[in-house]
């Protein structure tokens, strides 16, 4: 909680038994379960970590997401950082006061 507050992140709790109050994480959890966990039979922790890492890499770096304009989240974040950097470097118009 302290880290979230220090970084200006608003923490919103959901009511118990009301998962649709956070549809984004429920959607992710469903995809993760259906596409990764239910498709694997893990023999050991190392195998689970390896399979999850490969799925996470595909999900974040390869697969386009409609919520990100049909680009992978990593590319979307990169474009966002570039735009934010460009905006920070662009001098803002100043008003001269006489």
Mean pLDDT over the full residue set: 86
Separate helix tally = 4
Radius of gyration: 20 Å
Shape annotation: extended
The main β sheet shows up as:
none
Q: H/E series, N to C? A: HHHH
Q: What is the helix fraction of residues, given as a range?
A: 40-55%
Report on this structure:
- This protein has about 100 residues and is an all-alpha fold.
- The chain has a domain at about 45-90.
- It is extended, with a radius of gyration of 20 Å.
- The termini are far apart.
- The protein is built from four helices and no strands.
- The longest helix has 17 residues, at about 45-60.
Task: List the main descriptive attributes of the protein structure presented here.
single chain; 98 residues; mainly alpha
Layout: helices, strands, pairs:
Blueprint: H1 2-6, H2 23-35, H3 45-61, H4 73-89
How would you briefly describe this protein structure?
The protein has 98 residues and is mostly helical. Helix content is 53%, strand content 0%.
